[in-house]
Every structure is written in C-alpha cells, then in structure tokens.
Write a structure and sequence with these properties.
Helices cover 56% and strands 12% of the residues. A two-stranded antiparallel sheet has the order 1-2. It has 111 residues and is mainly α. It has helices at 13-35, 42-45, 49-61, 67-74, 78-91, and strands spanning 94-100, 103-108.
C-alpha cells in the first residue's frame, strides 16, 4: 500500500507574515488597556466633605433617596450624585435598600 500526495499543505509566507503582524497589534492593544486607570477617586469626582454633608441632609429629609433626586437637589451630575450616595451609605447615615446595576435606592438610617 503506497500513500501518495494528500496531507495538509503549509501556509504561504505572506499569510504567515500577516498573522504575525496581527498578533503583534493585539499584544500592543492589551498593554494599552492594562495601563488604563480602573475607577475614579473622590478627588477626580470633586467630592468634598461639605458636599457629602449636604447629601446626607437631603437623604435624611426625604423618604427615599435616588441618584437622580440627589442630582436635582444638589445641582450636580448624576454620576457625582451616585458617588455621593455611596459615600453617605458608607458613612452609616443611610441604609442601602436596593441596588441594581447603576441604580441605588437608599433611605435614612434614622427613620
């Protein structure tokens, strides 16, 4: 029995060169992604102690607090209001009632 021909042929050099360049490009992208900072800090968001105290007062005055309620009451962006609400909950002045993705619902711990 004699086997002739068949088998897998090698890829042309141009295709192998193109694949190598593609892998180098992907590796460079991964390095750039790793250098990106992960989360914003309080300083970057512009949270001051005075703003946190004002947010705590708004939370204690209302039945239930949401980021949009805080944003309209304090005149800040919703992203800043979300961070403020997290700070108020962390300080213990409010209790987190519900959390779903970006939505936070808190109530005053005094009531």
């Amino acid at each position: 029995m004699v086997f002739t021909g068949g088998g897998k042929t090698k890829k042309p050099l141009s295709v192998m060169d193109k694949e190598a360049r593609k892998k180098e490009k992907e590796a460079a992208k991964k390095v750039v992604k790793e250098e990106k900072p992960s989360k914003k800090t309080q300083v970057e968001l512009g949270l001051s102690e005075q703003l946190v105290r004002r947010a705590a007062k708004v939370v204690s005055d209302s039945k239930i607090a949401t980021p949009s309620l805080l944003a309209s009451a304090l005149g800040v962006k919703v992203s800043v209001a979300r961070a403020l609400l997290r700070e108020v909950v962390k300080s213990g002045e409010a209790v987190l009632v519900a959390k779903y993705r970006g939505f936070l619902l808190a109530k005053s711990s005094r009531s």
